[in-house]
Design a protein that fits this description.
Layout: E1 4-7, E2 10-13, E3 16-17, H1 18-25, E4 29-33, H2 34-47, E5 53-58, H3 65-73, E6 77-80, H4 83-91, E7 99-101, H5 108-117, E8 121-124, H6 127-139, E9 144-151, E10 173-174, H7 178-186, E11 191-197, H8 208-226, E12 233-235, H9 254-265, E13 271-274, H10 278-281, E14 285-296, E15 301-305, H11 314-318, E16 324-326, E17 337-342, E18 351-358, E19 366-369, E20 391-395, E21 398-403, H12 408-412
Parallel strand pairs: 4-20, 5-6, 5-13, 6-7, 7-8, 8-9, 9-10, 9-11, 11-12, 12-13, 15-17
Antiparallel strand pairs: 1-2, 2-3, 4-14, 14-15, 14-19, 16-19, 17-18, 20-21
The structure holds pyridoxal-5'-phosphate (PLP).
Pyridoxal-5'-phosphate binds at residues 58, 60-61, 79, 81, 102, 199, 202, 237-239, 275-279, 374.
Length: 421
């Protein structure tokens, strides 16, 4: 459920007409709904009720300061995967003891930053990383709390580019080697083992892979406790999928996911962490774009939009599907025709949809890409010297620009000319 609905023939973001935002800020732009962000965060928080827990929003999904502040204000922790994200979380007022640091390639500088600024835990992904973190912690005269990310070799049944829990993926330590790696961790004075971490992939649309992974984590927790480790916390990652089409079968709900966690791991009495990203932000955002031309090809009609692959790369990168709807509600029963929906970038890959059935559309019309809140703005670039598009946050009747569109001069002046030119 989200808060982007038609009212009297016009698409609204909460209580704000989307067309009004377009008139004020120009197109294309991203718009997020505070109510939807909050609702999704609370669904997870409530799904884990009865177990000690912290929902750490995976901020790589959408990391604007205003979004982070909104979620932090509701009690969210943050899952960060870079020094930059750590700095963003701190700038948004998230206390260090609510920040979890994930990722396979943490550098010394990133470790130093997080250890100095405060950190809930590092999710360590390899023995070399463990050795470096130990050394950095000792240099700083402190002890780094860690979990080890285990790779349970489970097929998440999702797109290959976002599956992370199979043995061929770069993530985590094979679960079969976990006990020796935990023994190594326990021998390093700069580290304190506090739990286990797992994250098997993104956009999972079934619970079965989670169940397989969490059962393996549960068994491992018991073995590690028997080996003398203090396993108090289980970080179960993110990955619960969202409906990208309204026709499709809906993925499992956070309540069902929460029940699965209780069922598989509740008996261990551990504190539970989860790291949802997509499900919190995905359906809380639209990308809004304007039709520049309707062009007739030999055997098809092209809708050429002012938004492009540099603004929303998911279709080009993951063959992702986004619902694309007119901002002015079409009349009921109007005949739909197929369009290839494309952007202006000079690549054929700049195609959002092929043969997409749409009500008749004309130059100047506004269209909205649904489910664009996660892995949208954060993956955008200035390819073709197209400015990063603005981000807007709606809250009831109010809206605010939370990242402005840069001017061409601002973009150009980021380059510097060497003295010999
Ligand atoms: C990307 C990522 C997440 C979030 O995944 P979603 O599918 O967006 O919920 C959580 N944890 C880790 C370690 C990740 O890399």
């Amino acid at each position: 459920m989200d808060h982007f609905l038609y009212r009297d023939g016009a698409l609204f973001a909460e209580d704000v007409p989307v067309a009004e935002i377009a008139a004020q800020v120009g197109t294309p732009f991203y718009v997020y709904s505070t109510a939807t962000l909050a609702r999704h965060f609370r669904l997870f928080d409530e799904a884990l009720e009865g177990m000690p827990h912290l929902v750490c929003y995976a901020m790589k999904a959408a990391s604007n300061q205003a979004i982070l502040k909104t979620l932090a204000g509701l009690g969210a922790g943050m899952d960060v995967v870079s020094g930059g994200e750590y700095a963003r979380a701190v700038a948004a007022g998230v206390p260090g003891d609510r920040i979890v640091f994930s990722g396979v390639g943490k550098t010394r500088d990133e470790m130093r930053r997080a250890l100095s600024g405060g950190i809930r835990q590092f999710n360590v992904e390899s023995e070399p990383e463990m050795a470096v973190l130990n050394a950095v912690a000792l240099e700083l005269g402190t002890v780094a709390p860690i979990t080890v990310r285990v790779n349970p070799d489970v097929d998440a049944k999702t797109h290959a580019k976002i599956a992370t829990g199979k043995s061929e993926n770069k993530f985590g330590i094979p679960i079969s080697r976990a006990r020796e790696v935990y023994a190594l961790a326990a021998s390093l004075p700069g580290l304190k083992v506090i739990g286990i971490d797992v994250h098997i992939g993104s956009q999972l649309t079934e619970l079965a892979p989670f169940r397989l992974a969490y059962e393996k984590v549960g068994e491992l927790a018991e073995q590690l406790r028997a080996d003398g480790h203090d396993i108090q916390r289980l970080d179960l990652g993110g990955g619960l999928g969202i409906p990208y089409t309204r026709s499709n079968e809906a993925p499992p709900l956070p309540t069902e996911y929460g029940a699965l966690i209780k069922d598989t791991l509740g008996h261990l009495g551990c504190e539970i962490e989860i790291e949802p990203g997509r499900l919190v932000a995905g359906n809380a955002g639209l990308m809004v774009s304007r039709v520049i031309y309707v062009k007739s090809g030999e055997d098809r009609e092209f809708l050429i939009l002012d938004g492009a692959m540099n603004d929303l790369i998911r279709p080009a990168m993951y063959e992702a599907y986004h619902d694309i709807i007119p901002v002015t509600e079409p009349d009921a029963g109007v005949e739909q025709t197929p369009y290839d929906i494309v952007g202006p970038v000079c690549e054929s890959g700049d195609t959002f949809a092929k043969g997409r059935m749409m009500p008749p559309v004309k130059t100047g019309d506004l269209v909205a890409f649904r489910s664009a809140g996660a892995y949208g703005a954060v993956m955008s670039s200035e390819y073709n010297t197209r400015p990063l598009i603005p981000e807007i946050l709606v809250h009831g009747h109010q809206f605010a620009v939370i990242r402005a569109r840069p001017s061409f001069d601002e973009m150009i002046n980021r380059d510097t000319i060497p003295e010999w030119l």
